[in-house]
User: Which sequence fits this backbone?
């Protein structure tokens, strides 16, 4: 998946991110709790298998709702579709959701 490729730098870094994200899809704790509850009906342990399933189902729902790859990338990265954002987060980590969407699209097209 393109998002997994972007988040884990090609599947190489599936550990903890600089802002507290975790796993190959780099879920923040609150996002994992919300997405796993939505998909599975409960907050599941954050394992690789659970993560893959929850992310796949969530992205599939967005596709079925008519979201484009770029919109899904923005939803994943910044939580909403619309103008992308740039800056530095509370952990001192730079972010650029415009670059993120471009990178996800490039992985998707491979």
Assistant:
């Amino acid at each position: 998946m393109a998002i997994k490729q972007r988040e884990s730098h090609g599947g190489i870094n599936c550990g903890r991110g600089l802002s507290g994200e975790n796993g190959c899809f780099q879920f923040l704790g609150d996002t994992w709790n919300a997405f796993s509850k939505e998909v599975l009906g409960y907050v599941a342990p954050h394992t690789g298998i659970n993560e893959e399933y929850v992310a796949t189902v969530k992205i599939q729902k967005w596709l079925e709702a008519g979201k484009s790859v770029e919109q899904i990338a923005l939803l994943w990265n910044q939580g909403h579709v619309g103008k992308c954002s740039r800056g530095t987060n509370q952990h001192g980590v730079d972010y650029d959701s415009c670059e993120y969407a471009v990178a996800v699209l490039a992985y998707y097209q491979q």
About this structure: The mean pLDDT is 94. Residues 2-109 form one domain. Helices lie at 2-7, 29-40, 48-64, 69-78, 97-109. Strands lie at 86-88, 94-96.
